[in-house]
Specification:
By secondary structure, the chain is α/β, with parallel strands linked by helices. Helices cover 46% and strands 14% of the residues. The protein is globular.
């Protein structure tokens, strides 16, 4: 009888010890998410904004043609709140947003109050939609993405965003492109 009681207590302790591990593993959408997002350039759009979704498809097709090593692809969120969450938690670096949605997200206005501050920078602008990025996107990557899209600026109706929009700055790599500067790739990591 004592043996049965000891076994039930031991199984309870083991179950409770495994709970934090299970909760920690449940955070990412799937096991290899970090590898996937490092190998592919994921650009968010939202099912809540069909026009932005179509623009995202067009921009990604251009990136796949002009910058094939980016392995760009569109990932669609159910709504803009989920998009803000993924940007805030650094699970994705790039998103296509209307001017108004970008302004609200950046300012932390309703319905994005819980994500404030959400630092966003601009890469390209078509007058109605922006390709926004987190500020930690490397300088050279921002330059390459901007150059690849602006190579097709006429067909995509892209313009130089000037000094920014709605208080958002231009990504430094994009700004270098707009100023006509050339950025060299970073040196490769040393061999181990």
């Amino acid at each position: 009888m004592h043996r049965r009681s000891l076994l039930s207590k031991l199984s309870l302790v083991l179950t409770l010890a495994a709970l934090p591990v299970t909760v920690a593993l449940a955070h990412t959408p799937y096991r290899f998410w970090d590898v996937f997002r490092k190998r592919n350039m994921v650009i968010l759009t939202s099912h809540q904004d069909y026009t932005g979704d179509d623009i995202g498809d067009l921009w990604v097709a251009t990136l796949r043609q002009n910058l094939p090593l980016s392995r760009a692809l569109v990932s669609r969120t159910q709504d803009l709140g989920r998009m803000a969450s993924l940007l805030k938690t650094d699970q994705v670096k790039l998103a296509v947003l209307s001017h108004e949605d970008a302004r609200q997200m950046f300012a932390g206005d309703a319905p994005f109050e819980s994500f404030k501050p959400l630092e966003l920078q601009i890469m390209v602008d078509n007058g109605k939609y922006l390709l926004v990025t987190r500020p930690d996107v490397p300088l050279y990557h921002g330059y390459l993405v901007t150059r690849a899209l602006m190579d097709s600026a006429a067909s995509l109706k892209l313009t130089d965003p000037g000094t920014g929009r709605h208080g958002m700055a231009i990504h430094p790599g994009a700004l270098a492109f707009y100023k006509g500067e050339k950025i060299d790739p970073p040196p490769p990591p040393p061999d181990k």
